[in-house]
């Protein structure tokens, strides 16, 4: 048991010569839902992340993101949108150097839901039977590139995918989950000496 605790403690320490980074990203997301009668829609995404090195070229990425999700739909010839707003808390493994991959999980906390059709917007809480899940669990991953501009400042580009694993609505009889692809640009700032 002591060996397991020692190994866990060693993994939690930053790798020699590696630096922690705080990142700020913003971009666009193409989102859709798995229900057959819906179409994709565009949304905004952005937030802050913290990269903690574990080993050479392996680290932990923790984040807090704002994400707009949802779908477009057509009912009786009338176009509309379902707009969902989430605060996402991803925890991902970061593997690589300047070019890197990310894989992990994300917990989304629903902060808003609006249905818009015929130029009228209605909060989902006012629609009978539209019980939106407060928590969304998802699998997240993607690719990124970090270009160093100075000793502490880097520009970043990332393409991420979040695959929701829980239904959007509590009472939805069919499998209807969020999916999103995000393109984010940002800066990363090295912390410490």
Name the descriptors.
single chain, 193 residues, mainly beta, Porin, 8-stranded antiparallel β-barrel, elongated
How is this structure best described in words?
With 193 residues, the protein is mostly beta strands. It has a single domain, classed as Beta Barrel (Porin). The chain contains one helix and ten strands; from the N terminus they run αββββββββββ. It has one helix spanning 2-12; strands at residues 20-33, 38-39, 41-55, 58-75, 78-96, 99-117, 120-123, 135-148, 153-164, 178-191. It is elongated, with a radius of gyration of 19 Å. Mean pLDDT is 87; it is low at 5-17.
Structural category is: mainly beta
- Tell me the number of structural domains: 1
Q: Unreliable runs, pLDDT <50, ≥5 residues?
A: 5-17
Please list the strands of the largest sheet in the order they lie side by side.
1-3-4-5-6-8-9-10
Assembly state (oligomeric):
single chain
| CATH class label | Mainly Beta
Order of helices and strands: HEEEEEEEEEE
Name the CATH architecture.
Beta Barrel
* Number of contiguous helices: 1
Q: Please tell me how large the radius of gyration is.
A: 19 Å
Percent helix range: under 10%
Number of distinct beta strands: 10
Mean pLDDT: 87
Q: Largest sheet at a glance?
A: 8 strands, antiparallel, barrel
N-to-C CA distance: 34 Å
Shape: elongated
Strand percent estimate: over 45%
């Amino acid at each position: 048991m002591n060996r397991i605790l020692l190994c866990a403690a060693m993994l939690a320490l930053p790798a020699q010569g590696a630096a922690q980074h705080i990142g700020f990203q913003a971009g666009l997301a193409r989102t859709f839902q798995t229900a057959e009668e819906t179409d994709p829609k565009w949304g905004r995404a952005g937030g802050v992340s913290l990269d903690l090195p574990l080993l050479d070229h392996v680290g932990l990425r923790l984040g807090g993101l704002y994400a707009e999700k949802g779908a477009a739909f057509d009912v009786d010839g009338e176009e509309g949108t379902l707009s969902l707003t989430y605060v996402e808390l991803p925890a991902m493994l970061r593997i690589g150097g300047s070019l890197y991959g990310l894989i992990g999980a994300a917990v989304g906390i629903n902060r808003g839901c609006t249905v818009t059709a015929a130029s009228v917007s209605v909060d989902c809480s006012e629609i009978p039977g539209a019980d939106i899940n407060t928590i969304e669990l998802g699998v997240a991953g993607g690719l990124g590139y970090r270009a160093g501009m100075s000793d502490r400042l880097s520009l970043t580009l990332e393409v991420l995918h979040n695959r929701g694993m829980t239904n959007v609505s509590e009472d939805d009889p069919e499998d209807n989950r969020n999916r999103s692809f995000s393109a984010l640009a940002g800066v990363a700032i090295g912390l410490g000496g």
